[in-house]
Amino acid sequence: MTTVAAPSAGTALDRVDGPEKVTGRARYAYENVPADLAYAVVVQATVSRGEVRAVDADSVLQLPGMIATIWHENAPRLAPVEDAELTVLQSPRVAYRGQVVAVVVAETLESATEAARLLRVDYRPEPHDVELRPDHPGMYRPDHVNPNYATDSELGDPDTALAFASVVVDATYTTPAQHHNPIEPHATVALWDADGLTLYDATQSTSGVRATIAPLFALPPESVRVISPYVGGGFGGKGAPHAQVVLAALAAKQVGRPVKLAATRRQMFAVTGYRTPTVQRVRLGADEDGKLSAIVHEAFEQTATIKEFAEQTTVVTRMMYAAPHRRTSHRLVRLDVPVPTWMRAPGETPGMFALESAMDELAVACGIDPVELRVRNEPTIDPERGLPFSSRNLVACLRGGAERFGWAGRDPEPGVRRRGRQLIGTGVASSTYPVYRMPSQASARAEPGGGFTVRIAAADIGTGARTVLTQIAADALRVPPAQVRMEVGDSALPRASVAGGSSGTASWGTAVLRACEGLMDALHRRAGDVPPGGLEASADTAEELRSQRPLSRHAYGAQFAEVGVDLDTGEVRVLRLLGAFAAGRIINPKTARSQLIGGMTMGLSMALLEESVMDLEFGDYLNRDLAQYHVAACADVRDVDAFWIEEEDPDLNPMGSKGIGEIGIVGTAAAIANAVYHATGIRVRDLPIRLDRLI
Ligand code: MOS
């Protein structure tokens, strides 16, 4: 007799890897210690532009435990690939301060660190330019913006519409450079043997690292194996391999031994990516009732000289609100700076800070409640693509959030509520994130001794992916989750897409589900009999994805904030943060809530604290550690909560889920800035909201 297990999806299953993590058995990249291991430490350029004239390897030769110094003159040649961030130590050119110009390898980490400190490098410096200015003569129009959106868009005649609008908001907002600071810094252990290259790497995509690194060493992908079962956070910084992965592999090749290379926290501020600073001009035209006639959103951003990274900052504005006239654009300048990369909701995060701040300014100018203003400008179809929405419950989030937050009866007058030494204010902002889905493969196997093993090269970067995939598999196999063993984080497993773009559950979950369905069919044909060698089925979702019908698919949310601003010091405290989300079916309420409030906390941090400060003279980010680059600490995070509304959307994927990894950060900073305006009457358009911007 068969008993069917109760569905696991929808229940708050504890993390299946929780015990490994809290008992220290989970092994992270840096904790791998192959025999004969050597330690590598990087030497970073101390000029912002120029050339390495000489590396004096003799200067460290006599240090104890020294094995090798590697620089552009003696480094193994890499195959030429387009990504100049990865073709390390191939030329004397220095493109930014902090770029790796040499690697020293030694018997111990201490020896290597000392050698890196003492190594004499002589430079021929050139004048540098590291300042992002919207009027920079080098501003150019990139061919497209990430991941592949049109650079500009235009509908109707926004200039004329603005000229005739009854109410106009015209404001410029800036967001600073921000650096990811996952608890686990980037780390790689590289090992060459007869089979090729093995990398223990902290990454959001073992399949991606394999595909990117193999060609650099002229290897077929099968000759590179990337192992990454546990990752201590990524936020996009580990979405693609950076220089240290190549350097570890290259050093291991050079010295003929396994090599371990970790970026220190300080090194991460130059070599593992960051969020570009932005300057954004937003113009909104509306009638007296707050109905938008025109939206113009222009973004100015920086990229590196060695690689273009074009953040899609204003793309979100193309689908957010209805307006007959609209223009969005992106302009970039190549500066002598490190290469920017994805950082949690790249594009939406800075873009929605500007748009949602401007919407608040419009609400004030029109004398309309900011929740109501957004509801009035709700589009019926995607304004840019002309497609129906698969589901769009922004209004339900705004209304539902307002009710739970206690928004009704809010006095719009700024700067009039006092509680003790604080001025009190509340603010709201919309949130959204696209629904991405990527092809993936998976396998499911019925084990002869009972139980199931499901394999996919997915990455659990702390999100709970392993747990949620276990739930999806358990339901498809009609067994309790305890009978499913989920293997992830290894490029030897069936190929999977990156843990990025909030696409993991949708992409990997579909592959897991299809593999399990295939296995169930096979078992059914055998009347449930598992052969002595076990029974396996596999799936590839590429075809299924191609047949998706065109619709506008996005998750939505509304962020509500209450702040207290100290009357004397200008110190801002976020007293309450509430997010209301509509993200399809929630598969695990516990891990989902953690993702959402985690994103909101990062948004709080962005609003008040995070800022990488560029020193124009030295051409480098100054505050390169957690003592100087402030992220929200427990004391900054008080009452942060998230909830979601039930959303049925049959046009997403078999699970009916939308991504939740990134939407939590989107809109949060605007909600807080809008609350600060309500508290103080001061409109802060430049993040972070520092004390000096309020007094
Ligand atoms: Mo996320 S920035 O797509 O890793």
TrEMBL record:
Alphabetical keyword list: Molybdenum, Oxidoreductase
Pfam families reported in the protein's UniProt record: Ald_Xan_dh_C, MoCoBD_1, MoCoBD_2
Gene3D superfamilies per UniProt: Aldehyde oxidase/xanthine dehydrogenase, a/b hammerhead (3.90.1170.50), Aldehyde oxidase/xanthine dehydrogenase, molybdopterin binding domain (3.30.365.10)
Record-linked InterPro entries: Ald_Oxase/Xan_DH_a/b, Ald_Oxase/Xan_DH_a/b_sf, Ald_Oxase/xanthine_DH-like, AldOxase/xan_DH_MoCoBD1, AldOxase/xan_DH_MoCoBD2, AldOxase/xan_DH_Mopterin-bd_sf
Signal peptide: none
Boundaries of every Aldehyde oxidase/xanthine dehydrogenase a/b hammerhead domain copy: 23-127
The organism's place on the tree of life at top rank: Bacteria
Claim: Glycoprotein is one of the keywords in the record: no
Alphabetized GO MF terms: iron ion binding; oxidoreductase activity
Keyword Manganese: no
Name of protein: Xanthine dehydrogenase
